[in-house]
């Protein structure tokens, strides 16, 4: 590897450290630039960054002047040095044109460095690169194949679309050559051309004709890559090349069956790279085609069973085989074989192989669920792996495998994982646990316990929407209220730092504090706690600097609610008045308004602070069916189809039943869920006191107390996007039209729950007198659930000058035909009017 | 749906870049940023961890040979195990060429390392699966280079012959 350079100049000997024997000081020229290796050695002696920079700058200056002199002899050396300095991170753009000059040179050395420089310093963003095109064109037709190779390589690595367009013809020519050295390179170059300029794909088609008949593995390999590229990009090409399946199968078979071939052997396997590429092409060809898939069945089974698995290379082939089997239309036996291979991978000592297995199983768990279930215990073991990527995949896969049968066991493992995993996993894991618990909880008690476990161990990582979801769950688990509040209270005593836990606990104590002090818990030993102790805890939350403003809001409201449940009202009054001057505006406002409740509106306080009724699950919470019980004995569960309305006086319900007749209607929940204090006091009074079905007039000034409930209540009703994207436009309909009163229904689908239809009623009045005290009521058959939100007003102005709108939400899980009975009451020209009607003309799209 | 190697990097444990081959057009500034970030991520990995990691929208396959990390960025759907084999094949080629290759060989002969890489891969794909074939081509090219630089007589140098 010795190379001799001619040297001139009087300084030469010292610079070149005696490499060269003679030197004649005939010409006074600049000393020859130092050699590459010298420069590298020198730079490496630098002890500081500054020293290195100085050396580099000095050398760059020398190189620059050398370039200016247009010195052909040393250009190559200088560019090489520049490339080295570029790799160290220093700018080298002034060498770009020099690379082009090198490429144009006749010397092979120059071309080699020139093309390398071009690939490192230039790219298609700089117009300069186009200057290469002509050189490359010439070099593609050079007499030396290594020069042609350089050109093909450069074009194939960095050719821009313009260059590719200009030179595609040359590449295509070379694709047809009999020189296998050039042919293989031309194939990969063509791949690049096609990636850059897909329209040019057609022109390479003829040249692909007998590519697979090649014996040379290099050509075979690159040809398969080219064919793969073409098939992936064009469905036409794909159909065209399907006929190659038998040939590909044959080649693959030969590779497996053939004896030892030293040239292509890797750990006893013959050309694994080619095998993998062929398998990948087969995958694409067999993908949606039964015939092709069948034609490759045997060879896939053969590869799957015969490949040596002791080394990574064998497993690489097996992996590709599995991917192919799962993607094509393979017979079930083959699929089971594939999954079993993945199962074996899971037991492999090599963590790379375990990783790859988990990734694949995650992809197939939806389609081959049962087969993957068989490997569940191995997958769960991977939760304990040290590698982060493996743990993550194992977690995702575990959640995918949870079902009604294995929920208890799986949850134990997943909760253990939650305890000990890295923070980056906790949020996802907690969400996954909640979701799984919601779907498959064997009992309400188990469900609450699981939630408690998550809140207490990973409480700071749960997502914000967990709080309202959990509150809703707890509210609906009526018989567990005492148990829940007790457990949450105890948790608070231990730790008040985890905000979601604190918020849920505060809310519960506010709601069920009476159960707590009366020691009513059945599930476990009831604790003895006094009202003062409870208030101490809640006040502690208000004062603690661990509590966020939101948490403080929860605590204050909870304390307020207890004023109707506890007897120590005076203490509560004191707390509330203190916070009337809190710096926190939110807290201050609440306190002031609660104060008002104590003073001026004390008569309303009990009603406003009453117990919350069962809430319908909002669409975003997934299945609206409440928990499947899996056959476990439960304490008497109220029939979930008739949510017991704790606050709904029984006689109102009966009235409706009587009124609407028949046994097939369900008493309607004709209210907004009482927010306390409600944002518009009207409907609350309707619900509680006023049984007259003519609907109460808007009551005397009600303080517009801000909603202090957890935001989700409103989220579920008005701020929840009820008018989100309409997947299918459902035509509106006229539900009622009589005596000048017309009621139209318009529809939306609640997003994302398609079982809920959101109907907006529009009531208009064509008569010359207003219809006042207007109340709309509705009832639906048993299989439906209905929710009526508050109307926009209760006056339908005369002569179509305006309308009343009101929203109805109908849950129709069984997708039955929607029917409704409506009752309308209003006052018109001083006389009360009442009417009943059946609405049966719902458009099919509203309930299908 | 293109299965492609986006780039390959070689770097030392001290975070010094020894080779970078980019198979997609990327701005110089972005390259520097990505290299810096990726080196940090890979160097932070513990020995017990697997050779694959997710980074940005790519899969990184890396392996350490003595003091050098060989790092490839591939598209999501690629077969990571075969990429490990590709890396290994490259190391074998270097080893055969330099004779028990070590980091210093690659430092002082970086351009040769590039030549070998460019004879082995093009656009991120293998050109030839035969070790012998690749090494032979390099050998022949080296010979061509030597013919270029064959010693000239002093008189020839002076332009007098």
TrEMBL record, chain A:
An annotated GO BP: vesicle-mediated transport
InterPro entries from the UniProt entry: Adaptor_Complx_Large_Subunit, AP1_complex_gsu, ARM-like, ARM-type_fold, Clathrin/coatomer_adapt-like_N, Clathrin_a/b/g-adaptin_app_Ig, Clathrin_app_Ig-like_sf, GAE_dom
Key word Protein transport present: yes
Membrane disposition: Peripheral membrane protein
Location of the GAE domain: 728-843
SMART domains tied to this protein: Alpha_adaptinC2 (SM00809)
Cell compartment(s), UniProt: Cytoplasmic vesicle membrane; Endomembrane system; Golgi apparatus
This protein's UniProt keywords: Cytoplasmic vesicle, Golgi apparatus, Membrane, Protein transport, Transport
Cellular component per GO, a single term: AP-1 adaptor complex
Homology family: Belongs to the adaptor complexes large subunit family.
Protein name, UniProt field: AP-1 complex subunit gamma
Organism: Esox lucius (Northern pike)
Automatic annotation (TrEMBL), chain B:
GO cellular component terms, semicolon-separated: AP-1 adaptor complex; clathrin-coated pit
Coiled coil: none
Secretion signal span: none
A Pfam family assignment: Clat_adaptor_s
Subcellular location: Cytoplasmic vesicle membrane; Golgi apparatus; Membrane, Clathrin-coated pit
Family: Belongs to the adaptor complexes small subunit family.
Protein name: AP complex subunit sigma
Annotated organism of origin: Esox lucius (Northern pike)
UniProt gene name: AP1S2
